[in-house]
Design brief:
Length: 328
């Protein structure tokens, strides 16, 4: 929709939201209402009269899934906005939900709305499953570390402990570890089956990179989704966190102070891919030694991770396998 008559801003919260609709012809607010999240159909009833000539802006808060999915299923034109960027633009002396909703609508009308990507609903559920598996794996690692600590403190593997509380604690952690192992194995099996249904060719492409196996390739695809959504390889590198932010004013460069906005999970995955590439590939070790002649060991791994990210972008875009000769 190029030039809609109505622009809607939704200030989205946990239990309630404020809806503001502005008429672009007059610039006046035609609807300002607070909606409780007791019934999702209330949103549709409020916006139904403007549906044919309306664009909606929603903040990308942690709970945006259900609202955006609902509006898209009903045929509304929805845009998801970067909550942090919107917050920076909505700063003022007197803050209110009504003011925030109106500001979102006016940002939409002015073409200044900081849009975020809306992931495909089916793909998003698989991605969130993978992230949940990663959380379980982290929990398992914590349990293993804690169990070893108790073992070293009381020498449970040797003389053992006479304290009943210590034995109970060790036994409970053992049960939790077995449960975690079972669940992780089951969820991983389901994840791979689901992902192979419609992304099998891309999984095969990424596994041509030395050191990248099925799990690592799955993690990359799930965090990237589609490379077509990035205009250039530079934008993709920035999304991965390999392009540092800059602060330049009056000809002075103040460095990259502040937060580097990126997909931190994708950045870490590429860093793991770089480590595996160096470990399991002769060409990777050779290239790493070459880079280390000019940079530190830590910096060299980040440089290789960045290069692998750029390589993955072109591999997926051009549907070509990894070429060691071109990489080096």
């Amino acid at each position: 929709m190029s030039n809609p008559q109505y622009y809607c801003g939704i200030d989205f919260h946990k239990s309630s939201s404020t809806i503001c609709v502005i008429n672009s012809l007059t610039g006046q607010v035609v609807m300002l209402v607070e909606v409780k999240h007791t019934d999702s159909l209330v949103f549709l009833e409020c916006l139904a009269q403007y549906k044919e000539n309306l664009i909606i802006g929603v903040e990308s808060t942690y709970n945006w899934y259900w609202l955006v999915d609902l509006l898209q299923e009903q045929g509304f034109n929805v845009m998801l906005g970067d909550a942090e960027a919107i917050g920076n633009q909505c700063r003022r002396k007197n803050k209110s939900d009504a003011g925030d909703a109106e500001k979102i609508a006016r940002l939409l009308m002015a073409g200044l709305f900081p849009e975020s990507h809306i992931c495909n609903q089916q793909f998003r559920s698989i991605r969130d499953l993978h992230r949940g598996i990663c959380s379980l794996q982290q929990f398992r690692s914590d349990l293993v570390r804690q169990s070893k600590t108790v073992d070293h403190q009381h020498f449970l593997s040797g003389v053992g402990s006479s304290e009943e509380s210590t034995q109970m604690l060790a036994e409970s952690r053992k049960i939790l570890l077995e449960l975690c192992e079972t669940q992780i194995k089951s969820l991983n099996s389901y994840l791979q089956c689901e992902l192979k249904n419609y992304r099998e060719s891309e999984l095969g492409l990424l596994q041509t990179i030395p050191g990248v196996g099925e799990m690592l390739a799955s993690a990359l695809i799930l965090e990237i989704e589609h490379v077509d959504r990035f205009q250039s390889v530079g934008n993709f590198s920035s999304y991965c966190g390999f392009v540092p932010p800059s602060r330049v004013s009056a000809g002075k460069n103040y460095g990259d102070k502040g937060k580097n906005k990126c997909n931190s999970r994708l950045r870490k995955t590429f860093q793991v891919a770089a480590i595996c590439f160096i470990r399991y590939s002769e060409s990777g070790r050779t290239y790493n030694e070459k880079v280390k002649q000019q940079h530190s060991s830590k910096a060299s791994k980040n440089i290789i991770a960045h290069k692998i990210a750029r390589t993955v972008y072109y591999m997926l875009r051009n549907n070509k396998e990894f070429d060691v000769a071109r990489f080096a």
